[in-house]
Amino acid sequence: MGEFRVERDLLGEIEVPAGAYYGIHTQRALQNFPVSSFPVPRELIAALAEVKQSCAFANMQAGLLDRKTGEAIMAAAKEVAAGALADQFVVDAFQGGAGTSTNMNVNEVLANRAIEILGGRKGDYGIVDPIGHVNLSQSTNDVYPTALKVSAIRLVITLSETIARLQGALQKKEQEFAGVLKLGRTEMQDAVPVTLGQEFGAFAEAFARDRWRLFKVEERLRQVNLGGTAVGTGLNAKREYIYAAIDELQNITGLGIARAENMVDVTQNADVFVEVSGLVRAAAVNLAKVSSDMRLLSMGPRGGLAEIRLPGLQEGSSIMPDKVNPVITEMATSVAFQAISHDHAITLAASSGQLELNAFLPLIAFNLLTELKLLINAVSIFRTHLVEGVEADEKRCRKWLEESLCLAAALAPYIGHEKAGEISKAAREEGRTIGDAAVEKGYFSKEEIEAIFQPHELTRPGIAGSKKVNKGRKGQT
Questions:
Q1: Three-class SS of residue 222?
Q2: Burial of residue 237 (number of CB atoms within 10 Å: 0-12, 13-18, 19+)
Q3: Which domains, ranges and CATH numbers included, belong to the chain?
Q4: What does the pLDDT read at residue 471?
Q5: Among 108, 245, 375, 437, which residue has the fewest nearby CB atoms (within 10 Å)?
Q6: Quick one: which of 406, 407, 412 has its CA closest to 475?
Q7: What pLDDT shows up at residue 458?
Q8: How far does CA 273 lie from the centroid of its chain?
């Protein structure tokens, strides 16, 4: 055949590159879907290979597949699951057919590799047939969503672990910055004092919720419809095959995969992917918010807040010397926005399923797996390139606090809201600190002001300085 071999299907003949492990069904998909150049996620391909390995084993157990053929398919599947022949999975991520093109791409590659293992030549499907042997007892509609769940479980677990490490890094900074008193801000205006450690502790708590939610939602992906074939009824799949396939998939993946009680439901409905993606979206929202806060707190170095210093990673301008930008915060925010858009696509795709099947599973797969991988990478980089190296500028924090008028709030319990306001106004008009103005007006002694304005007094429940300040003043108006 030279550079091509001719393969046939019900639609006719077509030329396939002679060296290709894929076949006619994949070649047709290449012609039909030259859309994006985005490949099907490699994690999904690996999971599909594991599903095919499980199915070959189960078909042998059920007496449907001879041992020689079954073992060759299993060997080929192990290779693909480990990353072999990656360049042979060529179908575009954006495809019609509920994943049939991807399933057939995998079937054909495994068949041709199994043929080689048995000593044959690619395309000799009399030895191993993509549909008759590799896809035996299966449908795209049960193997594809099962593989999607396997690949998603792994990435969800990885994201949860990655967020846990970020949480830990933020908690270390919480301890490191526990004594750094600074100005709190609400609605971008001066508020009451906090410590920088408290701010970082709040960041850590937000990610702690994300970690726990993702850790738990992994359970929602364990119910699979493998063995349900076309619509979840199990037509053309023996009962012993179904149980053996799921048991073997558990053994291969090490995951708690279980047969869904209602496989028609699991074949029809994709809401579980919306649920999972929604929690990934929540993590993206927190990443965007914390990134924005870090960017704002580091604004400067002289013309802004500059309460923290981010690690300098690269020059930030081709015209302004010595300018270093907060590029990691910007990257993380960009990824967060992209993840949110992936979630929206998943929502639309899941809502567009009709009757017994969702034809848009490839769109769900691409967006969910991409969303997870993006966040895994971004969160990891955010931790290693930014959080672990962030430093506090304690003098700057103290400067903004002392120059603000927020400390007047701590005096109100002693002298009342109106007199505290007078102190604040005097401080503003005279360019003095709240403490100096309060002492100047005779409301407090210098020692009392120092007792009230202690960091541990200003940033915990209760009235600041109440143990040392003249108790007769409390509640005065």
A1: coil
A2: buried
A3: 4-136 (1.10.275.10), 142-394 (1.20.200.10), 405-473 (1.10.40.30)
A4: 53
A5: 437
A6: 412
A7: 83
A8: 13
pLDDT value of position 466: 85
Residue at token pair 């994006």: 36
Task: Give me the sign of the Cα torsion angle 200, 201, 205, 207.
Answer: positive
Sign of CA dihedral 188, 192, 196, 198: negative
Specify whether the CB–CB gap between 224 and 259 falls below 8 A: yes
3-class secondary structure, 296: helix
Total number of residues shown for the chain:
477
255 φ/ψ sector (left φ>0, alpha ψ -120 to 50, else beta):
beta
* Nearest alpha-carbon partner for 259 in 228, 223, 234: 223
**In which element (H, E) is residue 156 found?**
helix 140-176
- For residue 300 the two structure tokens come to 């400067």
Residue linked to tokens 């590159």:
17
Instruction: Tell me which of 36, 292, 317, 351 is the catalytic residue.
Output: 317
From CA 198, how far away is CA 293, in angstroms rounded? 13
Query: Which ranges constitute the DSSP H helices of 62-135?
Result: 67-81, 100-117
Distances in whole angstroms, Cα of residue 26 to Cα of each of 18, 22, 43, 99, 339: 14, 6, 19, 12, 30
| Tokens of residue 391, six digits | 């430093």
Q: What's the CA dihedral at 461, 462, 464, 467 to 10 degrees?
A: -130
What angle do the packed helices 42-61 and 361-385 form, to 10 degrees? 120
Would you call 317 a catalytic residue per the annotation? yes
How far from chain centre, in Å, is Cα 348?
Answer: 19
**Number of H helices and number of E strands within the chain?**
17, 8
Q: How far apart are CA 56 and CA 133, in angstroms?
A: 8
What are the structure tokens assigned to 293, written together?
């806060």
Report strand pairing: 258-259 vs 308-309: unpaired
Report which of 65, 69, 21 is spatially closest to residue 45, judged by C-alpha positions.
Answer: 21
- The Cα–Cα gap between 27 and 346 comes to 28
Task: Output the 3-class SS for 349-402.
Answer: HHHCCECCECCCHHHHHHHHHHHHHHHHHHHHHHHHHCHHHCEECHHHHHHHHH
Burial class (CB in 10 A: 0-12, 13-18, 19+), 421: middle
Token pair listed for 401: 């606090």
